[in-house]
Amino acid sequence: MLLAVKVWTPKHILLLAIITMKKTYFLQVPQTCEDPAWNDIIFKIPAPEQADGMRFVERKILMTSTPNKKNKRGETQNLARQAGTGKRDETLLGSFEKGIDIREMPPKLINEDGYLSLYGGYGRAAIFDELGYSAWVYDIYEYDQSTRNGLQTNDLEVLEDAAISDNGSAKSKPAEKSDYVGILIRRIKDHGWNRDQMQEWFNSIEHCLTKRQVAEYISSAILKEHAEGRIEWFKEHEINQIVANHDPSLIILNTTDAEKGNNQRFIRTARSMMRSYVNSGGVTQGYCLWNSQASSHEGIDDAHIAAENIMNEFVDECMEFAAAINYFKTKPCKPQKVVFQKIGTDNLVGSVVDYPAL
């Protein structure tokens, strides 16, 4: 519907242009590679991106069945997803149901000896099949050793960097911690990377991580690489299953950072442990300890011993607390004040008043 104005000012024209533009973000997807409508789509979508170690070859309309999505063993392989693609974002399907979004980049292919392998846009491939899209626009690249950055030594590293960067923008489904850490561990093994080189790598790729996340991922990669061959790291759901199969009455406790004084994991189990102790008539409640970050035998032992000390200190404090209640004969805690939040009463909103504040 056109704007009802008597005089068309530049402001009105700009507003109408914006409204019109919003209506044309999504264009109908042509069903054949030969459809001339692709020419308009190619003209409107963003210019091809550049990637270290690669050279853009061409933007081409291909059958959606053309891109190779498997490795040499015939396995579907997404280099940017070490832990799999995870659950699909249904809003992505809704977007593609509207057509082709001319604001977004096409999927990316690498030409490997004539095979066009998909490395950017895995999530879209299954959607094309589901929506019956038989043709799409793709950006095709090839390796170019002359454009590698100082951290890239082979084509696999070039491809890994390009794939993780393609999932690093705010618009895409973000790569997970395990995706970044998996690449870093390989670089540590292959090249002996130190913390500075890993930081430089993060600076060379596209991502939306905070400085704190980058530092955490680097530390995790160093710990995990150091632990390999020394410590078996299990996922939490694996630990739950192992312990349940052995003795479901055991209370599971992750001792990570206990040696640093972190008692929160134990505190979260304390109330139910105390209740079970009372209900059982004084049966000692057993814990099963594990650790998700220790990288050495000594680290495991130190964390477990620290967790035991935390338990003992907690019991001592409980006994001291109970003795104080029996001695002083007072109620140890109760609500005394509230920050008043009810609008429309005699009390001032935002003031501290006696409890209960009716």
Give short descriptive properties of this protein.
358 residues, alpha/beta, 3 domains, four-stranded mixed sheet, two-stranded antiparallel sheet, 10 strands, 43% helix, disordered N terminus
Short description:
43% of the residues lie in helices and 13% in strands. It has eleven helices and ten strands.
What oligomeric state do these chains adopt? single chain
How much helix is in the residues? 40-55%
**Succession of helices and strands:** HEHEHEEEHEHHHHHEHEHEE
Mean of all residue-level pLDDT scores = 88
Topology:
Layout: H1 10-23, E1 26-27, H2 37-44, E2 54-63, H3 90-97, E3 100-101, E4 108-112, E5 115-120, H4 122-131, E6 135-143, H5 155-166, H6 177-191, H7 195-204, H8 211-227, H9 236-246, E7 251-254, H10 264-279, E8 287-290, H11 297-328, E9 337-339, E10 352-354
Parallel strand pairs: 4-6, 7-8
Antiparallel strand pairs: 1-3, 2-6, 4-5, 9-10
Folded structure, characterized:
The chain has 358 residues and is of the alpha/beta class. The chain has helices spanning 10-23, 37-44, 90-97, 122-131, 155-166, 177-191, 195-204, 211-227, 236-246, 264-279, 297-328; strands spanning 26-27, 54-63, 100-101, 108-112, 115-120, 135-143, 251-254, 287-290, 337-339, 352-354. The longest helix has 32 residues, at 297-328. Mean pLDDT is 88; it is low at 1-5.
